[in-house]
Specification:
- The chain is mainly α.
- The protein has a single domain, classed as Up-down Bundle (Four Helix Bundle (Hemerythrin (Met), subunit A)), CATH 1.20.120.450.
- The chain has six helices and three strands, in the order H-H-H-E-H-H-E-E-H.
- The protein has a three-stranded mixed β-sheet.
- A hairpin with a 2-residue loop joins strand 2 and strand 3.
- It is globular, with a radius of gyration of 17 Å.
């Protein structure tokens, strides 16, 4: 807390704005994925459309554990991916995770962003870095990477690709 009694959260303010923007674009993409295409994939090594889409929605939910815990230890968890049955379930899952991510960020001080966070599997440490770096790389850049893949999946299925950072071939206006 600062001397005025207000928590110092300039980093959180910036990340909340970024998450809100990226979530809006992501929501537009997820809304366009028909449930009957959830099992489609462009290559045998690729994730299915539904799995990739739920993974993107899920990653927004990585914010609270990143900000509120010192580590993620895969050896202490039983992960089960979310498997939506409908496009509406997929979008609701995204919205829930975005809401929780924003609440977690808003309650985080700048000092918390500088605390180290570790990803491990028991004794094997994958990385340790400040939480701000985890949020930017492991969470946000990861979301953007997979969302880019989703835009290709849309194109390959003749589904209009929305404007992401500027006009798309399908939506040429800003």
């Amino acid at each position: 807390m600062s001397s005025t009694g207000v928590s110092s959260n300039n980093i959180a303010t910036a990340l909340v704005a970024e998450i809100e923007h990226e979530a809006g674009v992501t929501r537009t993409i997820l809304e366009r994925i028909p449930a009957e295409k959830f099992d489609w994939k462009p290559h045998e090594k690729s994730m299915t459309f539904g799995r990739l889409a739920s993974h993107v929605a899920e990653m927004f939910g990585w914010t609270p554990p990143t900000m509120e815990q010192p580590e993620l230890d895969f050896s202490k968890m039983d992960y089960k991916p979310f498997e939506p049955k409908t496009t509406e379930e997929l979008v609701e899952f995204l919205d829930k995770n975005v809401t929780e991510a924003i609440a977690s960020l808003k309650s985080s001080s700048d000092e918390r962003f500088m605390e180290n966070w570790t990803m491990r599997n028991g004794e094997q440490v994958y990385f340790t870095m400040p939480k701000i770096a985890v949020m930017r790389s492991f969470v946000m850049n990861h979301i953007i990477h997979h969302r880019g893949q989703l835009s290709v999946y849309l194109r390959l299925n003749d589904i209009a690709v929305p404007s992401i950072y500027g006009p798309s071939a399908d939506e040429g206006t800003m």
